[in-house]
Amino acid sequence: KTEASSTCRRVFVTTNLLIRGAMLFSVGVFLALVLNLLQVQRNVTLFPPDVISSIFSSAWWVPPCCGTASAMIGLLYPCIDSCLGEPHKFKREWSSVMRCVAVFVGINHASAKVDFANNVQLSLTLAALSIGLWWTFDRSRSGFSLGVTIALLATLATQLLVYNGVFQYTSPDFLYIRSWLPCIFFAGVITMGNIGRQLALYEYKFIQEKSHQD
Amino acid sequence: MTLRKQLREKISAAFYRHGLLCASYPVPIILFTSASILTCCYPLLRLPLPGTGPVEFTTGVRDYSVPSHEPQGDLGERPDWYRGPPVAYIQQVLVKAAVSPWDSSLVPVDVFRSPLGRVFSLLEEIRNHVHSDSSGIRSLESLCLQVTDLFPGLRRMQSVLPEHGCLLVSPGNYWQNQRELFDSDADLLKTIQKHEPKGLHTSATLRDLLFGVPGKYTGVSHYNRKRVVTYTITVVLSSYDARFLGSLRARLKQLHPSANCSLREDHMVHVHFKEEIGIAELIPLVTTYIILFAYIYFSTRKIDMVKSKWGLALAAVVTVLSSLLMSVGLCTLFGLTPTLNGGEIFPYLVVVIGLENVLVLTKSVVSTPVDLEVKLRIAQGLSNESWSIMKNMATELCIILIGYFTLVPAIQEFCLFAVVGLVSDFFLQMFFFTTVLSIDIRRMELADLNRRLPAEAGLPPPKPGPLRPREVPPPPRPSPHTITLQTPAFRNLRLPKRLRVVYFLARTRLAQRIIMVGTVIWIGILVYTDPAGIRTYLAAQVSEQSPLGDPGGAGLPPHLGVAPVFRGGDPTSTLSIHPAPDPTPLPENQSQGHHGPARAGLLPQAPPAVPQITWGAEDEEGWRRLSFRHWPSLFSYYNITLAKRYISILPVIPVTVHLSPQEAIETRHPQDTRHPPPPIPKVSADLQTDLTLYKVAALGLAAGVLLVLLLFCLYRVLCPRNYGQNGVSHGRRRRGDLPCDDYGYSPPVSEISPLLLRGHSMDIECLASDGMLLASCCLAGQIRVWDAQTGDCLTVIPKPGGCWEQRDGWDGVGGATEPECLCSEAHGSYVGIDGLSEEEEGYPLRRRTAPIRPTLFNDQPDLTPLIDTNFTSQPPSHLLSTPPRAGFDFGGLVERAYMEHEPPSPSAYTSPSSADWESSVWAMELRGNLIAAGRSSGKLELWDAVEGSLRCSNEDGVSGITALAFLNNRIVAARLNGSLDFFTVEINKPLCLLQYRGAPLRGSVPPSPCYSSEDVISCQLTRSVHAAGRVVTGSQDHTVRIYRLEDSCCLFTLQGHSGGITAIYIDQTMVLASGGQDGAICLWDVLTGSRVSHVYGHRGDVTSLVCTTSCVISSGLDDLICIWDRSTGIKLYSIQQEAGCGASLGVISESLLVTGGQGCVSFWDLNFGDLLQTLLVLDNAAIVCDFGSELSLVYVPSVLEKLD
Q1: What angle (nearest 5°) sits at the alpha carbon of residue B48, between those of residues B46 and B53?
Q2: Which residue of B lies nearest to A50 if distances are taken between CA atoms?
Q3: What's residue B728's pLDDT?
Q4: Distance from C-alpha of B891 to C-alpha of B119, rounded to nearest angstrom
Q5: B283, B348, B399: residue with CB nearest A37
Q6: How many domains does chain A have?
Q7: A142: closest CA of chain B, how far (Å)
Q8: CATH C-level class of B759-799+918-989+1013-1023
Q9: Alpha-carbon distance A115 to nearest alpha carbon in chain B (angstroms)
Q10: How far is CA B132 from the centre of its chain?
Q11: What averages of pLDDT result for each successive group of 10 residues across chain B (1204 residues)?
């Protein structure tokens, strides 16, 4: 009997993992598309005949990469939480997650549309905003360290890509890339981790319920 | 720290007072808040309405000079965008060309081929025009707007739009401005059509761009009745040179004079274009809005425990929105014009301001004690959360101030708005939302409090409702009581989710509303986005209609009548009707050609043979008929944006071209004549337009009817219920009304009345029932078997020992006097005889011969032994004169007397042996027609219920049997010393009781090893229940044990209680519930022996436990009934009862709970915790209650077999 229930639980955990991964992937792809669109300079103010193509203005591999990365991050966060044995308790509700996503989009918006005097100012502002995002919605040390690590790694990867000529920035100001890129990455990691934790909460609840029933 | 505390206390006190104020004067405060909102929003009126339509400004041509960049003081009504040079000047050359006179030898293609061909020579003329004067030589090349590449996405337009040169567009662009290509083009229309976008086209198509007039006015088609072709040559100039333009105009006019043209040439129009949001920009915006709505949704979803969730959510959203509006208004008031795109920053502002405070306030207020006054609740809730609210606000203000010092203008502006928004939001929360909340809470108190009251644990009821237990005097006879039963369909506490969704959809009629709103929006979008389409089309339709109604204009060619709409005056005054400039007489026989007869019959006035080229007011600003996106799209092709900039449109240069038929024939392409003649329209043009209108109307009507039908079908599908009929009762249930469910359904009312079973002389000790029969045993040891349906007493098994002596004593007093007592007397004497004889002989069967009111006949004689001692003090006549009806009252009296005199009674009666006293029945079970009775002496007896004879007995045990379980042919007996005996009943042999697996093994010695190790004395088995082959015992040693019935092996010993087990419930689902003296309730899984949940719910013992499929119901010594969710172990609600009312529990059907206590039976609706009805059934009876000497059967319709 216990074996059967444990098997059942394993099956559930696996499917739940898959579902979570798929959801995180789609969220990542969606955000990548939208935010990329934000980054694209406003060339036309009107309806050019092929609007749809401008939505997919970036290369085809960008959204899947972002999706995969966000799925990994979103699964990694609750995993690390459970490894450290301290389930994240701070502001565990969907409204907070939505707020977090909105602030993340806002940070991107600011980086794309607001005219700053110089790049240092822009980067500093965005860094402050990202740290503020972490303080407002996360406040866990593990989240912070993971965010910083992943942001640095992603920045490095971008630099390598640019160095190898896969793509380039119009006005690079810091070693082939824009200096605000780490901040955006950090904010993105925090946001995806937030979503991932919230999704993992369902599984946690289910397991609790199950153990109650047993 | 102390400062902080002081501050905290002060803030808390201030909030408390504020809450009191808000809750005390809700209406004035709401009025005040609304007034302030409106005041703050007033400056918003001055802001321009959002919209992307272009704005125009007209100046004169003569004194035109390029406006300077600097704003120049007071310049009248000059708009603020009219600064600096325009992006471009647009000079249009409007060409109207016709072949005249029309020749019958001409084919339809000739209508437009040669006129279009003229464009090349005109272009040549314009391009080569050179104006030379003192300031030098100027050509078009030097003045025109030089364009470079087309926008990269427009490669396919490369062939038709000019690149790397002057931006000069004309229909000639279709043929690369080369006459040869035009001449060799076999099918002009096909060439033109080739570039049209497929499917739904937006307003500015390539055809419009090149022709410069809307497609239907060009006249380039096979069916052109007017035979006039109109097109423009659009020259885009980068700088304005009046002299060059003047010479060009003069030259063109000279070459192609427009005799009847009176167009005004002295106005140029500057058109300013707003920033237009493309789809590409819209997507991030829409995304942010979606996130915003998700945020609002998830936030407001948390509002709970209020009267109107939607109302409060609305209030919260209104609070946030109006605080935003207030912030914008205030900023505008202090001269800070918003430059940011409001739509873009709005979601971020909402997110920054947030709904959290509102939710925190609501939560805090609803979590205050319900019994407080509304004012105090609001005040308390406010002051509880005051500190966190203030702290949050201070933090946010700090963050925003930091943002202000980033010195980035956009962020500064955002921060400024956010600060003002935060402050006004705080103001609104404090005044508006708090007040709304207080109103809501008050409404809830008024409406819901009484209804919900039973669910609120531990609260004294403030207002006794009519449903509360009434202190009715006990009726002498069982009178019918009314109880309402709900139909099972609506009994589920929680509906399944999808059902709730469907109900929600149906209730709010969401689908229909969405469809309706969607349709309206769709229509709106259609009308709005395609102004060149519908609006102009309608205007043209109307204008074409107007001459028909005008008798004076009947003779005019149809297209002349367009003008009145635009001028509004007398049509004839503005219409320049000129005689045909061509002096060629109109040859009548040429006019109609081959399709003459068909038309002539219908229309008296045939189209003129000589196409009239006329110039009307509408030609003056022909570009107005184009889409307002015409110019922006033209410029956007060259990556030039017109957003927030303006262009100047110069007065049009009219060019009239008349071509002779010879010319037309010469320019003909050899294939033109091969074209089949155009299908002859059977109706005239006028009639056709008429019909178009009718068709449109008919189509619209049909669509409307279809829509209505569709909606009706949807309505039928989604809302099968009829709302109108029960709508009144829905939601307006008053106190005291019959309980009905949410859909206004009132369940049928049925009546039940208790049936009294009288016969026992002493308090009833134990009861057993198997549905058909009911066995009861009183303290006196007498066992009676009743028919559970009718209440007839079937059998009486008298006590073997002590009781006959009492009867004997009674015999002497009342035996001879009462004829009715005869049978009883006889009965008594029987008992006497039997008592003298040995027990083994079997007891005589006592059958009732008189079915009518047997209980009453039996009543008095049985009672009398109890008051035997009282007869000396009370006159017997009093007893005898009491009518049978009043028997009950008397019984109560007697009983009290008996209670008073009980202490001396043991001494008064000389009992024959002490064993008789001990051998009272402690446990009884009834199965089939066998009654198993466990006696205090440890003797287990098996009686035949129908015959009343002792079938067999077992006297192996010495310790009293406290609990019995009888299943199939197994009997399990629990004894006082903690041992458990398993017996098997052999039915086919002469009935005998076989101890299962031999006496040594399961005899009086402790049956399982566990017992020997424990304190045997305290190990009293209080209850044993069996289900599905398991016997469960709960004992005083805090353990619950599970045995298997077949081999009596102890499977589990469940430990978890910290007190003796007082209640156990088990059913077929193998879920075991146990309640102990510690007030704890444990749920176990019988199969695995694991504890599922462990909850504390009672102060004191748990007296009774019942499970339904969804919940567990427990009652305790504290008169509290708790209802727990069975799967999660969460307490759903609890019911506080009157003292002593909730001693025992029973569940009839899924949702009807019966509690029995001292003198009352109460029915509860489990779903809502409502008290349905309280029956006061005599003094001493519950449904079938072992309290007192009377039994009462309450017939609850159709569920009688559940009585237990």
Answers
A1: 160
A2: B153
A3: 37
A4: 123
A5: B283
A6: 1
A7: 24
A8: mainly beta
A9: 7
A10: 78
A11: 86 90 89 90 69 73 76 63 84 85 77 84 87 81 82 70 84 85 83 67 68 78 77 88 86 82 79 69 79 85 78 87 85 69 75 81 82 83 88 86 80 84 89 89 69 43 39 40 40 56 71 85 72 54 49 39 38 40 41 40 46 73 74 79 83 85 80 59 52 83 90 73 41 38 39 61 69 72 74 71 40 36 35 34 38 39 41 40 40 44 39 49 75 78 77 73 72 74 65 42 34 34 53 76 74 79 75 80 78 78 78 79 76 70 63 64 61 42 43 45 34
Whether A99 and B1092 lie within 8 Å, measured CB to CB: no
B279–A47 C-beta distance less than 8 A: yes
Q: Which residue of A lies nearest to B289 if distances are taken between CA atoms? A: A102
Hey, of A98, A100, A109, which one would you mutate to test binding to chain B, going by the most B CBs within 10 A of its CB? A98
**CATH class in words for B14-46+302-448+498-528:** mainly alpha
Angle at B620 between CA B528 and CA B115, to 5 degrees: 100
Q: Could you tell me if B814 and B842 are in contact, meaning their C-beta atoms sit under 8 angstroms apart?
A: no
3-state secondary structure of B345: helix
Whole-angstrom Cα distance, residue B35 to residue B29? 10
What was the pLDDT predicted at B877? 40
- 3-class secondary structure, B77: coil
Find, among B1102, B1029, B1112, B1092, the residue nearest to B1062 by Cα: B1102
**Structure-token pair, residue A16:** 């739940």
Domain that holds residue A66: 1-213
Compare CB distances from A115 to B197, B410, B1088 and report the shortest one's residue: B410
Q: What is the mean pLDDT of chain A?
A: 81
Q: Can you give the pLDDT at residue B495?
A: 55
> Which amino acid is it at B108?
P
**Domain extent listing, chain B:** 14-46+302-448+498-528, 54-64+80-277+615-669, 759-799+918-989+1013-1023, 1043-1130, 1137-1199
A chain contacts of residue B298, beta-carbon cutoff 8 Å: 93-95, 97-98
Q: How far apart are CA B694 and CA B702, in angstroms?
A: 12
- In this prediction, does ipTM exceed 0.90? no
CA B396, distance to chain mean position in Å, is: 33
Q: How far is A51 from chain B, CA to nearest CA, in Å?
A: 7
CB contact under 8 A, B151 and A37: no
Q: What is the dihedral of CA A76, A77, A83, A88, to 10 degrees?
A: -160
**Closest residue, chain A, to B1091 (C-alpha):** A214
- Minimal Cβ distance to B408: which of A37, A43, A125: A125
Q: Is B295–A132 a contact, with Cβ atoms under 8 angstroms apart?
A: no
Q: Supply the angle between the helices B434-452 and B309-333 in degrees, to the nearest 10.
A: 170
- Please judge whether A117 and B639 are an interchain contact, meaning their C-beta atoms are less than 8 angstroms apart: no
Q: Between A37, A117, A121, which is nearest B280 by CB?
A: A37
For the stretch A91-114, pLDDT in tens is 778 888 888 998 898 888 888 777
- Neighbouring-strand partners of residue B952: B942
For residue A185, the model assigns a pLDDT of: 92
Partners of B641 on chain A (C-beta within 8 Å) are: 44-46
The set of residues, in sequence order, having a beta carbon less than 8 Å from that of B757 and lying 6+ positions away, is B774, B776, B786, B791, B793, B855, B1190, B1191, B1192, B1193
Looking at the domain B1043-1130, which fold is it? Thrombin, subunit H (2.40.10)
Query: Which residue in B1071, B1059, B1054 sits closest to B1106, CA to CA?
Result: B1071
Asked whether the whole model's pTM tops 0.80, one would answer no
Which residues does chain A have within 8 Å of residue B281's beta carbon, measured at their own beta carbons?
42
Q: Taking CB atoms and an 8 Å cutoff, what residues of chain B touch A191?
A: none
d(CA B3, CA B53): 59
**Contact criterion met (CB < 8 Å) for B1085 and A34:** no
